[in-house]
Amino acid sequence: MSEARTLGELKRTHVPRGGVKDELRRNLIAKLGSREPLFPGLVGYGDSVVPQMANALLARHNLILLGLRGQAKSRLLRSLVSLLDPLLPAVAGSEIHDDPFRPISRYARDLLAEAKDDTPIRWLTPDERYVEKLATPDVTIADIIGDVDPIRAARGGHELSSELTIHYGLLPRAHRGIFALNELPDLAGRIQVGLFNVLQEGDVQIKGYPVRLPLDVMMAFTANPEDYTARGKIITPLKDRIGSEIRTHYPATIEQGVAITSQEAWTARGGELLIPRFLREIVEGVAFAARRDRRIDKKSGVSQRLPITGLELTVSSAERRALRHGEQPTVPRIGDVYAALPALTGKLELEYEGELLGGESLARELIRSAIGEAFSIHLGGADLSEIVQHFDNGSSLRLSDESSAAELIDQFRSVPGLLERAGQSGLGSAPPIVAAVAEFVLEGLWAQKKIGRSDERGFVATERRTTEGEIDPERLERLRRLKKQVN
Q1: Beta strands 130-134 and 458-461, pairing class
Q2: Residue 472: per-residue pLDDT
């Protein structure tokens, strides 16, 4: 069945169904009744944020999402589009998507008065009904509400006070849809005042002229909690008019974080790629360790983009090595996680102690911590004493990130029990897989301080202390000689 093209056709086939908040509520009720996922692709919010969002929409509230960076706030707002009707009729040519049955602009009113049932109709998709703006200090009231356009007045021969001279801002253009404003506290106070009437009275005023536009709009905002509560960042009357305040959060568990990163990271590079589970947990564990570390600014947060971009660079490092050596499958190793440092350091806002240490050194410490936690989960109960004893007896081993899997396996043969343990991983027996697991074993032993390692990834015995708490001098001297040989 074709859609109506004129108002006359529309009257015979279409029944008006209320405003946009009623529409969102109606479609939400249908989804809840059919047990469909409300916001597909959002992991970790099923028992926290999503129920609060549903409650706010059922109450027909305007809402604000409070959360640190990288908590999918913008994605949540954009997902509201899925609750809009597939098509909505509007007066053709109207800049603000006038309802053919309840026009509010001068243009639509004049057109309907002249053409009556022959008034042309266009059909809006959900994406056309979503307007998003990032708040910045330079945003003007004209950007949000609108302004008088002298050129339009001159071309049309209109008085400047005529509604036909208005160039509508983003908010009126969101009429009958959703208006999303990111980082609300960054909006100048005088601009925030301009939102009052829309939230309370449902209308706007443009350039001081008494133009009434009873907008039908769902308003949604985002903000950082620190900015939101800081004095002078958001004016109290506006905050009071926002119906629901919903707090977002980072993934609560490593499993949730791995699921989000696996979903968002671009790892489909072509060819056969195998990312071991322990490596995914290590990359994710870096973000969890950073969120706990007192040397990193808690107010800024550690974005979920850190593990996403970290995994992408880790895979890129493995891909580059595999292309050079002609290896299949491509399997990232622990060394590739260190190659992802450029994706990590730029996303860490450091406190004073962190600045003293340096971003790269701190990131390396976080990686070591994540390796230790993953090692405890996957190999914490394994008997690896034979490997530890090998290094305690004075042996050393230096690894290169650029070595092929076959070259690493040849080196690992010198370590008793290492390849046997790697072969028991259940991931497969291909050389790239065995090399990746064996390297994980050594890095895990180092992370748990059971063996030592130089900055150049040369593995040696760890420095143990005597009963008096001092390092054994003979052992210390032997370790120094070994480290010099490895380096």
Answers
A1: unpaired
A2: 53
d(CA 366, CA 262): 20
| 206 strand-pairing partners | 209
With vertex at residue 139, the alpha carbon angle to CA 137 and CA 142, rounded to the nearest 5 degrees, is 150
Residues in the chain: 487
- Looking at residue 226, what is its pLDDT? 72
Q: Cα separation of 365 and 8, whole Å? A: 70
| Domains of the chain and CATH, by start | 7-247 (3.40.50.300), 254-486 (no CATH)
- Alpha-carbon distances, residue 24 vs 126, 196, 364 (angstroms): 11, 22, 47
Q: Write down the pLDDT at residue 466.
A: 42
Q: Is the pLDDT of residue 265 over 60?
A: yes
Residues 386-438 have pLDDT tens digits of 999 999 998 999 999 899 999 999 999 999 999 998 988 888 889 999 999 99
- CB-based contact 348:300 (threshold 8 Å): no
